[in-house]
Structure formats: C-alpha cells, structure tokens
C-alpha cells in the first residue's frame, strides 16, 4: 500500500499530479532552438559578437549548465542565428513599413523577435506563417515586456501579407 506521500506524487495521463497541478509541457527542439537564437540575437545587439562566437559561448556555457541547449535543434539554431545576423540590415528594411516607430526605438527583445521571425518567414517556406507568428508571440511573452507580444503580433500580421500573400486568407 502506498503512503500519502507516494500517492500525492502520482501523475495523471494529462501530466497533472494528484493535486491537479499540470506539469509544463516539454519544449520541442525547434522551440528551444528559437529561444536560444533569440538570446543569441540579444547578445549580438549588446556585444556585436559574431554568430560563431555566440554559438561557441552557448555550446561551452549553456551545454554544461543548461541541458536545454543540448536538447535544442542545433541545425535550426545555427541557421537562425547566423542567417539573422548576416541579413539583419535587409531584414530591418523589410520590417520598416510594418513598424509605427523607428527600428531603434524598439526594445532589444522586440527587435530580436521581429528579426528572427522575418528571417524565418523569408527563408523557411516549409514552415507555415501561423507557426512562425505563434512562436514569435510566445518568445515575446516569455522574454519581452508586458505587452510586447501584442506589438509583435501586429507587426507580423502586417508583414506576413507582403512576405507570404499566398498563405494569408483574403478577408471578405
């Protein structure tokens, strides 16, 4: 027979424990890659390091101290980080028409999220735009200011109409 302590640790099929507290869902390797790419872009904005240096720093530091980096999709992480840094000026130009303020007036997190999403919208046609937008909004919620995700959503909603017009349903 199980003691009360043992039975309180029982977990249901939906991940909730006996007290009804749900465990947070496991992050996918692609989500982890986007999170680390965002952190790398933030670092790049602050320190102006190269993508290779930033990635090496994550591999050395985060790999030992945070198993999350080891569970990230490393190919996606590398592509997102290096590609976004390499094409930052062009991505910024694509973003400008959708912004209601200067690019430099955005918070570093909003800038990084928008650059990352714009890179993915232009270079990952196999990923549906709704997935890219949702991931960007979730990143902004996790790492950005209180209402930053709303701004990111609005900007990407405008941007996707020019970058992926064939995917956006026409409004009647």
What order do the helices and strands come in, and which of them pair?
Elements: H1 4-7, H2 29-47, H3 51-65, H4 67-70, H5 74-86, H6 88-95, H7 108-123, H8 129-143, H9 148-163
Shape designation: globular
| Structural class by secondary-structure content | mainly alpha
Helix content: 55-70%
Please count the helical segments: 9
Q: How many strand elements?
A: 0
At the fold tier of CATH, the topology name is: N-utilizing Substance Protein B Homolog, Chain A
- Gyration radius (Cα, Å) is 19 Å
* Uncertain residue segments: 1-15
CATH class: Mainly Alpha
| Gap from first CA to last CA | 63 Å
The CATH homologous superfamily is termed: NusB-like
Q: What average pLDDT do the residues reach?
A: 85
Number of domains: 1
| Element-by-element helix/strand order | HHHHHHHHH
Strand content: under 5%
Major sheet: none
Describe the structure.
This protein has helices at residues 4-7, 29-47, 51-65, 67-70, 74-86, 88-95, 108-123, 129-143, 148-163. It is an all-alpha fold and 172 residues long. The chain has a single domain (26-162), classed as N-utilizing Substance Protein B Homolog, Chain A, CATH 1.10.940. Helix 2 (29-47) packs parallel to helix 5.
Features:
172 residues, mainly alpha, N-utilizing Substance Protein B Homolog, Chain A, 64% helix, globular, disordered N terminus
In short:
The chain has 172 residues and is mainly alpha-helical. It is 64% helix and 0% strand.
